[in-house]
Design brief:
Largest sheet: 21 strands, mixed
Structural class: alpha+beta
Number of helices: 12
Strand content: 35-45%
Helix content: 25-40%
Distance between the termini: 109 Å
Number of strands: 21
Length: about 500
């Protein structure tokens, strides 16, 4: 064979292999479980980018919320108060501040700061210096201290409290990757569940155009149908997978280790015991007459979950559920959940967006529940109108028996949302003092918190006399502030 023919044949073979790879990839990517998994992941990713969800996540991991008010109508003088919470859940840090001022004079400025290893608090107006506790030294410092039940002091803890604080260092640990790993584990088990249910289900596939929020969406429809035996078999597979998942066991232990009031070993044991109990209960499930059907409407463009319909019938008792999300849940003009059963009970939540632009936001949220047998329906409607330029904000709540209107000014300035309350009306009556209260809520998605200082007085090593004086200084200082500014 000459060189030219060899190149041609070789090139043809390579091209055929490439085509085969592309075709097999497309086939795998369009399998029912792959379509549902990708649609679910994309839809969840979109939901995380919804502004209010994204804002909450930022605030929880490095932001703050502050509430301030003019207490002129409640205090003897023109007193202004601000309470502020800093949060950083990912790094197990938080801080709290309370400030009272009269004109430019500070009446009270108290701070409490926490991290994974210690906490401290200060308030110059009540006591000198800073006091705190190092969790790592609790096992060494608490026995024989004024908090030890065996010492029988005025400040002794009970046995249960003492044991809990004695082991606090083992149950509060800095696990910076915990939040990420919990998210990844959730995604993993979402995939496991989808693959397993598809494995045991009767699978159907078709195409349909649906309308959500006035928008027509072309969808691939994947239908899964399972009876009682298929449901039991799928659930058993998932339970078996979890029971053999060492990574899940380690993660559960880490989750419990970051909870002050949970014994990690007991928490993990209880979790797997509950799986065993669920496995035992599956024998009863197989004795039922069950049919579960789920229709996944997956957008042909974008591969998102636009709609999910589910129907389950157990011994001739039927329940139906439908969730509408639209082409992209982040920008959808309509999101709804409706449910009903064969007894006539109905329930629905519908979120409708009339405008969401750089200029304005206007939306409506409607809740309803009822009984179709008796023509009964209870409905609640919530409306929000916000002029993003001027800041004019109005919240309306209307139920069958009551209504509420809240007005204010809401402005976004960089990383901050600042809301000043101007009016509250219930029924036909305005709530007094609202405007003079000047209640302001500031949400900052990026606000560095004060750190626990390096030096402070360790509370667990204080003697009874010094701790008594600290307690009395705090009580006397608070009483003095109350008498001077808040007792009429």
């Amino acid at each position: 064979m000459d060189k030219k023919k060899g190149l041609i044949i070789g090139g043809s073979a390579a091209g055929a292999a490439l085509i085969a790879l592309v075709v097999s990839s497309l086939v795998l990517a369009n399998r029912p479980n792959a379509l549902i998994i990708r649609a679910a992941a994309n839809t969840i990713s979109d939901a995380k980018r919804i502004e209010i969800i994204d804002l909450a996540d930022d605030v929880a991991n490095g932001g703050s919320i502050a509430v301030s008010a003019n207490l002129d109508k409640l205090a003897n003088d023109d007193v202004y108060a601000e309470a502020k919470i800093y949060t950083n859940a990912a790094n197990l840090k938080s801080a709290y501040e309370l400030t009272l001022t009269e004109d430019d004079d500070v009446i009270l400025n108290s701070k409490a700061m926490f991290n994974e290893g210690k906490f401290a608090f200060s308030c110059p107006e009540l006591f000198d210096g800073t006091y705190g506790v190092n969790y790592r030294n609790l096992a060494k410092n608490l026995p024989g201290s004024i908090f030890d039940p065996d010492e029988e002091t005025d400040y002794s803890l009970d046995d249960e409290q003492f044991e809990r604080y004695l082991n606090l260092n083992d149950t509060v640990k800095n696990d910076k990757n915990l939040q990420r790993d919990v998210t990844n584990m959730t995604a993993k088990y979402r995939q496991v569940a989808i693959k397993t249910f598809v494995k045991y289900a009767e699978v159907g596939r078709g195409s349909k155009t649906i309308t959500v929020g006035g928008e027509k969406i072309n969808c691939t429809v994947i239908t899964l149908t399972l009876d009682e035996e298929a449901l039991a078999a799928a659930t058993r597979d998932i339970i078996e997978y979890a029971n053999n998942d060492k990574d899940l066991e380690k993660l559960l232990y880490r989750v419990a280790s970051n909870s002050m009031y949970t014994d990690p070993d007991e928490y993990v044991d209880n979790f797997f015991d509950s799986l065993d109990e669920m496995d035992d209960a599956l024998d009863n499930l197989e004795d039922e007459d069950i049919e579960l059907s789920m229709d996944f409407y997956i957008t042909k463009s974008g591969r998102r979950l636009a709609r999910l319909d589910a129907e389950v019938e157990v011994d001739r008792e039927r329940t139906e559920l439908s969730i509408l999300l639209g082409k992209n849940v982040k920008t959808s003009k309509e999101i709804s959940l409706t449910a009903s059963n064969s007894d006539g009970d109905t329930f629905s939540i519908t979120y409708t967006v009339k405008e969401n632009s750089a200029k304005a936001y206007e939306a409506e949220l409607e809740f309803s529940e009822g009984d179709s047998r008796y023509g009964y329906e209870d409905k609640v409607v919530v409306k929000v109108e916000w002029d993003k330029k001027s800041g004019d904000f109005e919240f309306k709540y209307k139920g069958d028996y009551d209504n509420l209107v809240i007005k204010g000014n809401l402005l976004q300035k960089g990383d901050k949302y600042i809301f000043e309350l101007t009016n509250i009306r219930t029924g036909n009556s305005p709530v007094p003092y609202v405007k003079t209260l000047e209640l302001t809520i500031t949400i900052d998605r990026n606000d560095p918190m004060p750190n626990v200082p390096a030096r402070y007085t360790e509370i667990t090593t204080m003697n009874e006399r010094d701790f008594k004086h600290l307690k009395e200084d705090i009580e006397d200082g608070i009483n003095k502030i109350e008498e001077e500014y808040f007792e009429h």
